[in-house]
Design brief:
11 strands, Rossmann fold
Length: about 325
């Protein structure tokens, strides 16, 4: 029975990983978090001050980090202290431990904020934000450390993750559609990649149990989806008529610039996230899995919408 240590275990991805592992594996699950929350089916959770007390771990999954702040209210230093600093701390511990596999949850934003064509692992990283720069710094540290022959590392670069407990832009879209409000950004023709948290958990389990070469892997569902298609999926899930308004893109961008100045719900960065083209290639991932991901992009998004509906009923 493999022993898995998950940092940031109480977060969105961590809680979904625990649920998936309990249902689909026989791992012993442990946690490392900023406090000691109680989570069902987790044997023990340590806080970071207790790191040196942890023994006999086979696999480390490092999820803990500072998420991208769309309100731009965070100090840049906080990103580097957490996303780089905590990674260095846990990876240095991993090198000395008995564990043989280390997973870093990085991000496609460590590579590019804007994508032309498809984002592959071969693209030279050029992050713009402090979030992206702190993530690539963590990646580079891991790759710079010389490990014993029996130890490996995997750097996962997920795109936008969704699933039960998600609190990002998908939740905002769900709230808009469920109230019967129209989608005013339908004039933007875009495609972007998404990642179901169930598919992510399946990938983690496949890498834990498989004999896969160390390296960097983009993680995404197979098919990119347009925001308009996403609105259709949400509308169907909540039983509402799909309302797509094709307002001038120039006018919408003008409103977003006003939002930058006076903190409206719509600002330039949020507009970019909602309407950008951001297609992530997962060809490298598929070449090592030798099996299909459990969920298609559409079916995964439908499950997420269902989870929102259950929470709000």
């Amino acid at each position: 029975m493999k022993s898995i240590l998950i940092t940031g275990i109480s977060g969105f991805v961590g809680t979904n990983l625990v649920k998936y592992f309990v249902e689909n594996s026989d791992y012993k699950i442990y946690g490392l978090d900023i406090n000691n929350p109680k989570i069902d089916n987790v044997d023990k959770i340590w806080n970071w001050s207790e790191l040196d007390l942890i023994k006999d771990i086979d696999v480390v999954i490092h999820l803990a980090g500072k998420a991208h702040d769309l309100k731009n209210s965070s100090d840049d230093k906080a990103y580097f202290d957490i996303n780089y600093g905590l990674t260095k701390t846990i990876f240095d511990w991993y090198k000395k431990s008995n564990a043989t596999k280390f997973f870093l949850m990085s991000s496609v934003k460590a590579v590019a904020d804007v994508v032309n064509g498809e984002l592959t692992e071969d693209v030279v990283p050029n992050p713009i934000t402090a979030y992206g720069k702190s993530k690539i710094m963590a990646e580079e540290y891991i790759q710079s450390v010389e490990l014993p022959d029996d130890k490996g590392f995997y750097i996962f670069r997920p795109c936008m993750i969704h699933g039960p407990g998600n609190k990002g832009n998908l939740n905002l879209l769900y709230s808009l559609v469920s109230k019967g409000l129209p989608w005013p950004l339908a004039s933007f023709d875009n495609k972007r990649s998404f990642l179901s948290v169930q598919n992510l958990a399946f990938v983690f389990s496949s890498f834990i149990d498989g004999n896969i070469k160390s390296g960097i892997y983009n993680i995404s569902d197979n098919e990119p989806i347009s925001t308009n298609k996403l609105i259709e999926i949400i509308s169907e899930g909540v039983g509402k008529r799909c309302k797509l308004w094709h307002i001038s893109t120039a006018f919408i961008k003008f409103v977003a610039k006003i939002g930058d100045a006076i903190r409206l719900p719509l600002n330039s960065e949020r507009l970019q996230k909602l309407t950008e083209n951001y297609v992530v290639s997962n060809n490298k991932l598929k070449s090592v899995l030798f099996t299909e991901l459990p969920l298609s992009s559409t079916s995964g998004l439908k499950l997420t919408v269902q989870s929102f509906s259950k929470k709000n009923n």
